[in-house]
Amino acid sequence: METLLSLLSQIWASHAVLIITAIKAVLVAVTLLQVVPLMVWLERRGSAVMQKRLGPNRIGPLGLFQGIADGVKALFKEDNPPAHVFKFYYRLAPVVSLIPAYMTFAVIPFASSIAIGEHTISFQVADLNVGFLYIFAIASLGVYGIIMAGWSSNNKYSLLGSLRSSAQMISYELSLGLSVVGLLMIFSSVRLGDIVRQQGELLVQLGPLSIPKWGIFIQPLGFLIFLVSAYAETNRLPFDLPEGESEIVAGYHLEYGSMHFALFMMAEYINMTVAAALTATLFFGGWQMLPGLPALQALLTQNLGLVGTLADLLRVLFELGSFVAKTAFFLWLFVWVRWTLPRFRYDQLMDLGWRVMLPLSLANIFVTGILIYYKVL
Fold this sequence. Notes:
Helix content is 67%, strand content 5%. By secondary structure, it is mainly alpha-helical. A hairpin with a 2-residue loop joins strand 3 (202-206) and strand 4 (209-212).
């Protein structure tokens, strides 16, 4: 037993950073996996509330276990691909869509760092010095899965859906990337951790009222461009042209069923989660606490007599709760918009991307540069 403990301590001493990173990666992956059934439930219950229906209410309290039942059904459902598909690429396409969706969350910080013993633990799987550039680079790989699915299905409607998706993502990736250039100019960093920390500063102090330096207050136009482009990048209504049930039946996943279709759904919901978390991180302070929570945290720390690591753990819990609340709001916004706005026509989609979003994003960069030059920002 002593030999085993000695061996474990040696492994920990020499590979502590690697072990901590692996633990964070597993926790993030498992958490994202739990988001999928919750979002499926939220989609159904949310639409039911808006349309004055009941929605799922039989399996579990308030129908909460409906997503689990659907997952079990998809897992055990017979999966026989049609004879006319290119089977290797047909089976590979959902995986190619899912992997980038998981990878993009790696650089998003969900709390500030904490010191435990000799190690400083950052609540971020990988603190890369390329920050959100990594997210844009990896997220753009997801379209290859959609293109592969459309082509390998050997179906004209599937191919049309995949072509729509590639054109849509190219059109809105430009605006998405340019919308955050203003933040890069102001914060002088692409590291998401640095951006969140700088958003903890005060922008305006008017007596008891203080406005933090959140991205929404210093880049309101950039926020709107980013939000609209994120909806287009995730293929959500009113930008779900790659699926377009009324026009091309179901688009790129027309020939898919069972777990292959479920993987596409998982990729979509995880992409939504990443988009929501990135919106909260760039424009709403990320893990910076919501108004009123810093005072509550200080009060609890004092009353409970917490010091050192325990006080830091309480702070991390409040920061994590703030980050989750902000992300949850934007996830609900995805559902709200879906059941509020109708789908665009394809020509309207392209016009909005090239004639409205792109010029506005360039104008936003120009105005931001002028305000920085005259030291307004």
